[in-house]
Structure formats: structure tokens, C-alpha cells
Amino acid sequence: MSTASYSERITMEPLVAAIDQGTSSTRFLVFNSKTAELLSHHQVGIKQSFPKEGWVEEDPKEILQSVYECMERTCEKLGQLNIDISNIKAVGVTNQRETTLVWDKETGEPLYNAIVWLDLRTQSTVERLINSTPGKNKNHLKHKTGLPISTYFSAVKLRWLMDNVEEVAEAVMTHRAMFGTVDSWLIWCLTGGKSGGVHVTDVTNASRTMLFNIHTLDWDPELCKYFDVPMEILPQVKSSSEIYGSVNSGSLAGVPISGCLGDQSAALVGQMCFQDGQAKNTYGTGCFLLRNTGIKPVMSDHGLLTTLAFKLGKDSPAYYALEGSVAIAGAVVRWLKDNLGIIQSSAEIEKLAGDVGSSYGCYFVPAFSGLYAPYWEPSARGIICGLTQFTNRSHLAFAALEAVCFQTREILEAMNQDYGVPLSQLQVDGGMTSNRLLMQLQADVLCIPVVKPSMSETTALGAAMAAGAAEGVGVWSLTPGNLTTIPTDTYQPLINPEESEFRYARWKKAVQKAMNWETTEPITNGNGAITNGNGAITNGNGAITNGNGAITNGNGAITNGNGAITNGNGHP
């Protein structure tokens, strides 16, 4: 078939676009709504800044500018392919979740940088909040939010901004402040900003703030009071698939924005996990395993989060998911490149690790931002152990890839326990899945097949599907019979389960060594037995449970009782 007749055929079919605003880059992608084929895209990197240890920020204006640039460049590329951009019938938005912004609704200016989900500056706030709960329990709000009190979620970041940034406090006082996660900021700006922009979010993004009640599907007055957040600064919560407004300027002016999903929920939709029990793991900056639990929220006893999977239409039911979150996955490769300089590009890690085929007893726990699921231990820090004179950079690269796989296994085991039915195969997506060694290692570590779609852009696809299916757009059918089947590659486990178990047990041992490294406030007048500060930690479990029974993490995952020592040190 000639290119001309191909593009003529394309011009007949409706297209749907997606903005995919991630932690490390922004992309704009255009799909054929009938075949789910990716026609064109453009990507722009996003700078992260680390003003202090543990702080991670991004510039909201740079994020917005990158979106405009990706949209315009993609439209140019479509023009070169003779594809008429007037065929783009809708735009969906998917985004890094939890990342927190506050802006002035009158000037349209951000009042501070975006505080990224990985950021740890709120650790002392989190400790103070946990210590003030009955029984010093990090799960105090879980019955409403599905989440532990943690540095990860937006409410504590927003609290920090209101407490520490004069411009934010003043804008809140004078009723000019708007709070939002990245989706809200982008949709507000794209639909007109200070001149009539729409201030909205969807249920999946709202469910990551700690201010949202996952049962009522709205902001919770009690939660807002708990964090002392005025409800007037919050966006309106909508479903994940409805027309929120239209693009206000540029090549796509007038096109409806009609899909919005946090990146992990979007990947669940893009992997077609619409049925109760289906699951996917996304390998990006972090690693996120979500399992659809149907229209009822399942509360975890093993350190997983209960979150909104999607709500595909105003009158459609909300679906829930269990989620395991790993803070550092692709970020460990970036660290090996940027901080240690042992690789020049992220793609090199596969060859470097493949040269040795084993870590030879070296284990790498990349707890740069503490440990997320299933431990929720903010005091943990990164550790590399099992080093010998034989260890070289190839072994370190291999250990880094293995770390991603071991962390996924920890989450998968917790999920199997919570859900009751073990997963028989794992659907995967995200940037790191192009690393074939990693995918094979993952199958070996899990002892189940790993299934990767040939089109890896499932996050953007999910946002496009939600946008195209919205009432008033109606160009993408999500009924099971009409879903496009996407070809896949399957990786089967190749090592024996005994070897896999041995390596996993050593990993668990390394994780324990990473625990309780950092305490944020000096421990002086603590709980008697802990007055000697970190000494008590090294002398084992006894002193730590000292009166703080309930604090040892509620996860059952922390066997050595060192769970949440930082929360039990009698801080104010």
C-alpha cells in the first residue's frame, strides 16, 4: 500500500491525543481510535532540581511549556505525514501523581515550584502527625483514604507549602490560591488559565491527596480539617472520562479535553485491565503494581494502598485497585548514570549487566527516598552490600536491575495475600520494559510469565481511550467485544525456583540492613529507653517497642520489629 493511500485511509478515521506528563519527561501522542495504533508523538525532558538533600522539585512553567511544545511539534509531524489534525477529536491527560502545586488564580503564576511525589522534606511533619494519632498509628486515616500517612501524598506537601512559603500562605488568606496535582494545573492552563480556566481533577488523582474520601468519592471535610486545608482551594472532582473543557489556544484550539487519569490508573486502562483481578506493573521512575479489585475497595493488611482505578463516565461506577508502589526503579539507572557515571546512557545498563549475568552476591537496596510498599519506612536509606574485591561496575548494574525485580516480588506477594488469588502472569509496561534482560530477570524472580505489549505506551493509550470514550466525543468504544487486541511478548521463567528463593531471601536480609538509618529530629528526651538515640536501634528490637506497640508499622512485613522507629521517638 502506498503512503498516500495509507494517509488517505487515516484521514477517514477519528484520532485521539494524549498528554503524558511524567516525572522525567512530557510526551504528546496521537492514536487512531479504531486500531489503537500510535501515529506520531513528541517528547521533551523535564529538569528536576534537588535544592536540599531529600528535596525534589520541578518548575510548573517548564512543565506547562513542555506540554505546549510537544503538542505543537506532534501536530507538525502529523502534517508531514499528510494527516489532518482536524481529525483529532479529543485530548486526554495523564500525569505523575501526588506532585503538588499551588498557584494564584488572578495572575495565573505558580507560587512555588512543584513538590514532586518523591520529595522527603515533609518527613518531620509526617512524624509529628503520626505521633499525635491515637496509638501513634500511620494508618489512622486509612479507613477513609486507603493510604498511610506518608511523605508520598499531596496533603502533607500542601501543608508544608502553607506553613513555609509566605506567598502561598498569603494567597490562601486572600482567597487567591488554587491547589492542584499536575493534571489540575495543566487542564486549568490549557482551558484558559486566569481567563476562564477549569479547575478540576479526576477521582484517580484526587485519591492520592489524603484529602479525598474513597467511599463518598469527594473531598472529605474531616480530612481537610485534619490537615487544616481550606476546601475552597481544591479543584472540583470529576470522573476520568467526560468533557472538562476545551483547549484554548494553539493548533488544537477547540478540541475537548475529555479524559484524565493518574499515570498508574491510565496504564491499567491501557492494558485493558477492566476486570476484577487483572493487574499490571509499570516500570518508570518508580515501579507501580496495580490490581483491579472491582467496584468494592479492598483494604490491605500487608502495606498496599487502596486507590481508585478509574471511573469511566459521570454515571459509570468507580472501580478500585490495590496498589504497591516502589519509589526507585528507573531512577536507580539514572543515579548510576548521573551520580556515579558508570554508564553514559540509560540504554547501556542492559549490556553492562549482561556482560556478567549475575551480581555475584552483591545486593543493592535503592531506598533513596525511604522504602515504600510494603514497608512504608521513611527512615530507610540506600545500601549496597555483599561487596568483595571481585565486584565491579557490571555486578553493580546487575544488582540494580535485580533490585527492581525483587521490589516487584515483595509487592506481588503482599498483593496475593490481600487479594487471596495468586497472580498467574504479570502484564508489564513503561520505559524500562524495553530492557530484555530486566524482563527475563523479572520472570525468573517471580517464577511466573511476564507479558509485555508490543506497543509500550500503555499509559498514554489509557488516557486516549478515556478521552475518546467520553460522552459527547464517542469515538472509542470500550465494550469488551470492540477492544483492540495488542500483540505481546512473553518471558517465561528460566531458572529453578530454589535459586530464585535463595536470591530473594538474601535480598530481604539486605532490606533489613537498610532500615532505620535516618531520624529527622534529635532524639534527646525521648521514651526513656530511647534516650541513647540510635544506640537503641543497634541494640535490637527490645528497646524499640518500648511503649510504642502499635507503631511497628501495622504491616506485619517488618519482622525484626524495627518498623517505624522514627515514629516512636517521642517527638513533639
Report on the structure:
- It contains 18 helices and 23 strands.
- A seven-stranded mixed sheet has the order 17-18-16-15-21-22-23. Strands 3-2-1-5-14-13 form a six-stranded mixed sheet, with helices on both faces. A two-stranded antiparallel sheet has the order 4-7.
- Strand 10 and strand 11 (218-219) form a beta hairpin.
- It comes from Salmo salar (Atlantic salmon).
Low-confidence stretches: 1-5, 522-572
Please count the beta strands (DSSP E, at least 2 residues each).
23
What class would the helix/strand composition place it in? alpha+beta
- The best one-word shape is globular
Cα distance spanning the termini: 72 Å
Q: What's the oligomerization state?
A: single chain
Residues in β-strands, percent:
15-25%
Give, in spatial order, the strands making up the sheet with the most strands.
17-18-16-15-21-22-23
Helical run tally: 18
Fraction of residues in H or I helices: 25-40%
Biggest beta sheet attributes = 7 strands, mixed
As a whole number of angstroms, the C-alpha radius of gyration is 23 Å
Nearest-integer average pLDDT: 86
Keywords: ATP-binding, Glycerol metabolism, Kinase, Nucleotide-binding, Transferase
Organism: Salmo salar
Domain Carbohydrate kinase FGGY C-terminal: 280-470
Pathway: Polyol metabolism; glycerol degradation via glycerol kinase pathway; sn-glycerol 3-phosphate from glycerol: step 1/1
